[in-house]
Write a structure and sequence with these properties.
With about 350 residues, this protein is an alpha/beta fold. The protein folds into two domains: about 5-190, Aldehyde Dehydrogenase, Chain A, domain 1 (3-Layer(aba) Sandwich); about 190-315, Aldehyde Dehydrogenase, Chain A, domain 2 (3-Layer(aba) Sandwich), CATH 3.40.309. It has helices spanning about 5-20, 35-50, 55-70, 75-80, 105-115, 130-140, 170-175, 200-210, 235-240, 250-265, 300-310, 345-350, and strands at about 90-95, 120, 150, 160-165, 185, 190-195, 220-230, 270, 275-280, 290-295, 315. β1, α5 and β2 form a beta-alpha-beta unit.
Length: about 350
């Protein structure tokens, strides 16, 4: 199977996924093998939500929409053009996936396969319904993928390299267990936004997408703000208001109530609007329904601070304050070449 075959298969997969990127689901009879797989994937989406309450139909559809927009010829070719695939010797690459948001390990999955390697997937118990079904679809439309995709719940054995995502604690275990193997080990990271007080209402509303999408559970979700001294939070809270129905989700509401009670009993100062609390804190990772903030006096000093703490930060959202920062509302819409932790997965896979 050559590279173009693999690209063609993923383009077809993108067309299949695209049918599930809206709430209503749109059955397109022109999609390859749709009569065999459409209803089955609807069922897997239902099972995914029943198994994990955070995986709402809306959030699963949002994830699928992003992948359907990425898996087209133009985007894939733009992604892969800088690399040379001619001399790849197929290896077995193990992937240990997180389960915080729907299909969070999908980029690693397609990267391994499109590079010409075989993949051994160890999924999180929180996200185990969607990817195996998509793998079956992939094998059906491109039979040469058969034998290259394995899912396991057992101890990983017989592999040549590994990509593992987990917490700071599990990463230490991964680094010890996989020593001697080529590896990418990902740790906890969070995303931040830098506000100057000059943001428009539209930009602050867009920022709310970066904060609340997937209930804030993704590493690309903004969990902390840097704001100038004496920043007026009224406009910020106004920009968030369209997300107020989020408090009607039981799991989110339970976290909101619990964390609010903890903060009040601890006599922490906080601001809240009925569905989000903001608390002054130097940490990067805030609990669900909470956003941390930190004041700054000097933008240049803040830029230096952010650079020095880059190992804790996945994305920086700003209006051009930081070079290569992400625009408001775009953190959950990465391109194929926006690599997690800024580690080039394809370059790694081509040299193992």
């Amino acid at each position: 199977m050559d590279l173009q075959q693999r690209i063609n298969a993923f383009v077809k997969l993108g067309e299949f996924i695209g049918q599930f990127s809206t709430d209503g689901f749109q059955n397109n009879e022109n999609v390859s093998a749709n009569n065999l797989f459409f209803e089955g994937f609807k069922h897997q989406i239902k099972l995914a939500h029943e198994h994990n309450g955070w995986f709402t139909k809306e959030n699963i559809s949002f994830s699928l929409m992003g992948w359907s927009k990425s898996l087209n010829n133009h985007s894939i070719e733009q992604w892969l053009t800088p690399y040379k695939f001619e001399n790849v010797i197929p290896k077995k690459v193990a992937i240990i996936m997180a389960g915080n948001i729907p299909l969070v390990g999908f980029h690693d999955f397609i990267s391994v396969l499109i590079s010409g390697h075989s993949v051994i997937v160890k999924q999180s118990s929180n996200d185990k319904h969607l990817l195996p079904y998509l793998a079956k679809y992939l094998e059906y439309i491109e039979p040469d993928f058969k034998g290259t995709i394995t899912f396991t719940e057992e101890k990983l054995t017989n592999f040549d390299a590994v990509i593992a995502t987990g917490s700071d604690n599990t990463s230490r275990y991964f680094e010890h267990y996989f020593r001697g193997k080529p590896s990418i080990i990902r740790k906890n990271r969070n995303s931040v936004a830098i506000l100057t007080g000059k943001e428009t209402d539209e930009e602050l509303t867009a920022l709310s997408e970066d904060i609340f999408r997937y209930y804030g559970l993704g590493c690309r979700n903004v969990s902390k703000l840097f704001v100038p001294k004496d920043y007026d939070f009224d406009a910020f809270f106004k920009g968030l208001y369209e997300w107020h129905p989020i408090i009607n989700q039981n799991k989110y509401a339970n976290n909101y109530d619990y964390n609010k009670a903890v903060y009040l009993m601890s006599e922490f100062d906080l601001l809240e609007n009925g569905f989000l609390m903001i608390k002054e804190d130097v940490s990067y990772g805030s609990p669900i329904a909470t956003l941390f903030y930190e004041y700054y006096n000097d933008l240049e000093a803040l830029k230096k601070h952010v650079k020095e703490n880059s190992q804790n930060i996945q994305c920086v959202v700003s209006k051009g304050v930081i070079e290569d920062s992400v625009a408001f509302g775009q953190t959950q819409k990465p391109n194929l070449w926006d690599y997690a932790d800024n580690v080039d997965t394809i370059a790694f896979l081509l040299k193992i």
